[in-house]
Amino acid sequence: MRSYERHLVTKFSDLGLAEMLLRALDREGYETPTSIQDQAIPLLMQGRDLLGIAQTGTGKTAAFALPILNRLIADRQRPAPFTARVLVLAPTRELAAQIADSFRTYGQFLRPSVGVIVGGVSHRPQNDMLARGLDVLVATPGRLLDHLGSGRFKLAATEVLVLDEADHMLDLGFIVPIRQIVAKLPKQRQTLLFSATMPKEIAGLAQDMLNNPAEVSVAPTATTAERVEQHVFLVDGAAKRDMLVELMSGADVSRAIVFTRTKRGADRVAQHLDAAGVGVEAIHGNKSQSQRIRALDGFRRGRTRVLVATDIAARGIDVDGVTHVVNYELPETPEAYVHRIGRTARAGASGRAFSLCDNGERGLLRQIEKATRQTLAFTDRRSADARNADAEPARHNPRAPRAGAAKDDGGRGAQQRPHREGQQLDGHRPGGKRPARAAQGRKRRPFNGESRPQFSRPG
Fold first, then answer.
1. Angle at Cα 249 formed by Cα 244 and Cα 252, nearest 5°?
2. 362-372 vs 334-341: helix axis angle to the nearest 10?
3. How far apart are alpha carbons 168 and 220 in whole angstroms?
4. Between 60-74 and 93-106, two packed helices, what is the crossing angle to 10 degrees?
5. Do the domain assignments include residue 451?
6. CA 181 to chain centre
7. Are 106 and 65 in contact (CB under 8 A)?
8. Which of 38, 271, 330, 403 is disulfide-compatible with 364, CB 3.0–4.6 A?
9. What's residue 418's pLDDT?
10. Within 10 A of 80 (CB to CB), how many other CB atoms are there?
11. What is the b/e burial string over 356-380, where b = at least 16 CB atoms within 10 angstroms of the residue's CB?
């Protein structure tokens, strides 16, 4: 597998795309390709398989849609009933719909037949659409397997396979459905795999699916968008909702996404914001397809100022003009944090990302800082009792340095971190090692030959 690096070209016309595609790009106001587009498009137009690693918001969709449309222009043929020339797999319904819209936008002068197959809607309209044959089918893996299982829809004529947001599909447990789908595809095909991160599972999938692929990487793993201003508010858990209302009441918040961990949490946060007079909609997996489309459309058109979403939407919401992202609850993985805040600062704009962190989430915050290789500025809005509790364990820890003793901080003293407010975040580590117990007061029972019960320590 070879990795390619090219200098950014100045215009799309330098990439050798068909004239009708250049006309569509000009009409949409696109002049300069992004780095992933500049590197990937020429390779794909040569028919190469490709492994593309790029963070969210870098223009991956156009990077594969444009060369695919160029291929359809060069070889115009009507697809047979119940077949698709191009198959794009996406992890979420929202992302699938947006990919299809991109194909229609870039191919507006070609007018390719583009269809979307997702769960949550009736099978019959989808069957009718498949019966006509499609140039491009965008699908989520589960629903596509349903149609393949019926025996009518076939993948034998599919020329190009695209896996978009492959790492997210693996996170959602789609690895087995993906392999089942790939087994039904012809061996002679072009395969493109795009991912924001490169875990071992993606490397293994790429090795199995791709044939002598080129690799294009435009951003290191877990790198946050450069134009996103990030800030953390340390708050008590019970004060999060009021803090969120305060943030969303700011005059500069014109379009914001608030992320929660759970679907029920998203509904509760949305209800609280609504009661405070903030225009809000919630979007998550328990919502019907029509509800999710309506909520996303209202947010995109500006009828709704705040969208509350779970992580399933972190990579599926592609809306320009998002000024703020709020992590109401920190995600379980640093990669999810990167994708969440990547919803702002898109298309060359800047944005702000706020995170509300209570004491139970301090470990997650440290993981994010370690993975993104940055120290996040913070404001401590906790109660006095919570602040004092931070220092309490240190006073009883026999390993703590004596008062007045010099502390070896490795050259990272507080005076070198003026942007930090209050105590350092790593001053107390919840869930870490407990202070050592003094040995002199401990009584030990003599071993009598019987096995002792094993007790697990509380975390």
1. 115
2. 80
3. 17
4. 50
5. no
6. 23
7. yes
8. 330
9. 36
10. 13
11. bbbbebbebbebbbebbeeebebeb
Question: Among 30-44, 85-99, 306-320, 402-416, whose mean pLDDT is lowest?
Answer: 402-416
Q: How far is CA 169 from the centre of its chain?
A: 11
Domain count, the chain: 2
Domain boundary, last residue among 370, 397, 424 = 397
CATH of the domain at 53: 3.40.50.300
State the pLDDT at residue 277.
94
pLDDT tens-place string over residues 284-324: 878 887 888 888 889 989 999 999 999 876 566 778 889 99
Spatial distance between the Cα atoms of 358 and 337, rounded to a whole number of angstroms: 16
Size of the chain in residues:
459
Structure tokens of 298? 């209202």
Alpha-carbon distance of 315 to 313, in angstroms, equals: 6
pLDDT of residue 172: 76
Quote the DSSP letter at residue 235: -
Sheet holding 280-283, edge to edge: 280-283, 306-309, 256-259, 324-327, 351-357, 228-234, 378-380
Residue 448 has pLDDT above 80, yes or no: no
**Is the same domain home to 300 and 156?**
no
399-403 long-range contacts, Cβ below 8 Å, gap at least 24? Answer: 399/435, 399/436
Domain match, 235 and 375 both: yes
- Of the candidates 217, 255, 222, which has an alpha carbon nearest to the alpha carbon of residue 349? 255
Three state DSSP letters for 405-445: CCCCCCCCCHHHCCCCCCCCHHHCCCCCCCCCCCCCCCCCC
Residue 277 lies in a domain: yes
**What span, in angstroms and rounded, lies between the C-alpha atoms of 343 and 321?**
9
| 419 pLDDT tier (thresholds 50, 70, 90) | very low
246 with 169, same domain: the answer is: no
What pTM value is reported for the model? 0.66
Place of tokens 């790492």: 167
Where among 375, 397, 419 does a domain terminate?
397
